[in-house]
């Protein structure tokens, strides 16, 4: 009963918003309305997605968006920023308190932006500042043309050691198709072929030989814990800066599921994250760092970022305030319990999982065990209403496009309220689809890596069972757009 007034308020807020939009461009109002229906109807297992609260969503839809605010709190390049200052200061305060960080920068628009801010902060601290000091000047504009050319060469001649893509690393960790690979000489560390776990001894040997400026830890498809204390020890040994990209698992750090050696914040000099994955905030990024990097990090805008998005910083503040509530700790624990239940359910039904299971929010199914490529598995699952994404597995014979893996994650379904028993049912649905999918053929009759055939009736039957499951946990129950 006590929820009724809030529910009415939420419905009214979103309905009025859509009416206003419909008056200008009905196709956009329709697309927004259709998106909530699509999300309500699908079994969302994409490990990097979640559902932000109505308060977070509403914090983004307002006139804070109209303000330019380059600079940082109290030091802007534009007048009239007092409300943006409040928003940014409150968001940063929540971030510092939540993660126990010395400094928080909440402006990055995305994870890649947060990583760029971090890279340039480290380059400024470790390459640019010493060059200025050697030249006896305070800023780059005071350097001679010759010294400036030498500094630019030095900035472009630094090394980064990051996790290999097929072991679960991220494209922004020094890989050539991304700007990070064009900025740094990159070398990768991987996982042990037997256990599938990060091989710290090999990492240490590689770091000693390669002498990187930055060692970057963090992943988008590694289902186990990372020992950040050990990573820092290795970084210190070779005079590297330890940077951790916790985009995927920030919610587990915030919810105190990852603590001690597995919490990156006390160990890394600089930590980046997105805010919309397991942290359940708005789409955006954030940087946490120690005092030594704070000034450089605050130069993110205009160094590599366009003007801050004050409305999104407002939503970050709301999401971070939510994550400081005791309920968020319970949520984070349930995410991990659910991932384990899903992994166990899949394994019991004969699926092969990379590393044999999970310690975090995601699991990686090696679908070659079903005779499929990742692409075939992804599309067959989607046909049955199960939304996942294909992903390379270590030493993947099918490469990054077709892949041999399917990544599944539990942050979104946990937000929706599903529990461990229901994860077993989800495992059953996934296994049903994969084991009843066969490989299609190319025009010349050879086995295809892309096409597939799902047995008649399976998609409908799975979709019905999944709809029953989802009906027990309505998404955004407080929002009625009818
Ligand atoms: N796109 C995110 C993911 O799915 O892991 C990372 O960039």
From TrEMBL:
Q: Which GO terms fall under biological process for this protein?
A: glycine biosynthetic process from serine; methylation; tetrahydrofolate interconversion
Please report the stretch or stretches of sequence annotated as the Serine hydroxymethyltransferase-like domain.
Answer: 24-125, 158-430
Q: Residues where N6-(pyridoxal phosphate)lysine occurs?
A: 277
Task: Using the UniProt record, name the top-level EC class of this enzyme in a single word.
Answer: transferase
Which pathway is this protein assigned to? Answer: One-carbon metabolism; tetrahydrofolate interconversion; Amino-acid biosynthesis; glycine biosynthesis; glycine from L-serine: step 1/1
The Swiss-Prot or TrEMBL record lists the needed cofactor(s) as: pyridoxal 5'-phosphate
Q: Where in the cell is it found?
A: Cytoplasm
So what does this thing catalyse? (6R)-5,10-methylene-5,6,7,8-tetrahydrofolate + glycine + H2O = (6S)-5,6,7,8-tetrahydrofolate + L-serine
Q: Which InterPro entries match?
A: PyrdxlP-dep_Trfase, PyrdxlP-dep_Trfase_major, PyrdxlP-dep_Trfase_small, Ser_HO-MeTrfase, Ser_HO-MeTrfase-like, Ser_HO-MeTrfase_PLP_BS, SHMT-like_dom
- Sites annotated Plays an important role in substrate specificity: 276
**Chief site of localization:** cytoplasm
Q: Name one Pfam family in it.
A: SHMT
Q: What does the entry list as the binding residues for (6S)-5,6,7,8-tetrahydrofolate?
A: 165, 169-171
According to its UniProt record, the EC number is 2.1.2.1
Example GO CC term: the record gives:
cytosol
Q: Which GO terms describe its molecular function?
A: glycine hydroxymethyltransferase activity; methyltransferase activity; pyridoxal phosphate binding
* Subunit structure of this chain's protein: Homodimer.
Its biological purpose is as follows: Catalyzes the reversible interconversion of serine and glycine with tetrahydrofolate (THF) serving as the one-carbon carrier. This reaction serves as the major source of one-carbon groups required for the biosynthesis of purines, thymidylate, methionine, and other important biomolecules. Also exhibits THF-independent aldolase activity toward beta-hydroxyamino acids, producing glycine and aldehydes, via a retro-aldol mechanism.
- Sequence similarity: Belongs to the SHMT family.
| Protein name, entry field | Serine hydroxymethyltransferase
| Lineage, uppermost ranks | Bacteria, Bacillati, Actinomycetota, Actinomycetes, Kitasatosporales
Q: Which gene encodes it?
A: glyA
